[in-house]
Amino acid sequence: MGIADRQRFHRKYERKGPDECWPWKAATSGFGYGRFKINGRLYSSHRIAYSLSKGRIPSGGGWHGIEVLHSCDNPACCNPAHLSIGTHAENVADMDAKGRGNRRGSPRKYQVTPDICAKILASGAPATELEKSLGIPMKTINRVRRENGIDNAKFKSFSALRIQPEARR
Q1: Rounded Cα–Cα distance for residues 133 and 79 (Å)
Q2: Which spans in 14-149 are helix H?
Q3: What is the pTM (predicted TM-score) of this model?
Q4: In order of start, what are the domains of the chain with their CATH numbers?
Q5: Which regions of the chain are under pLDDT 50?
């Protein structure tokens, strides 16, 4: 990540006090996470903020490998003091402990049975086609594929981007 990208990144969040959230002010995902483009690829802003301040995120299992967790529970926050790394299981346990495991308070609408899972994994059809034929949201189809090691995306994982921590000031 070059100097120009770093400067552009720092302009896209509002830096506040050391204990406050630093909200992302640019593009966000449907879940409120900041999105930042480098060399034509989108990355999560909190992962870049972590890497710039604390170093490279270790690789691991799962979609992003090791996850970057928010102690503040604010997906738009880029304050490195609020960010730590952990496994997906640790992230889910933290979410459940804080009572934010299910935002609508009801169980998941689409329970994927082993039979449906097998159909998704055996099919080479795009998720949009499976959504129509199986009556399951594309998001769920993509989750099943990711959790079973099928790369459904057209971009490299975050670990492919090498970001060096900024010098301490």
Answers
A1: 43
A2: 45-54, 88-97, 114-122, 127-134, 138-147
A3: 0.59
A4: 3-105 (3.90.75), 114-143 (no CATH)
A5: 103-107, 153-162, 169
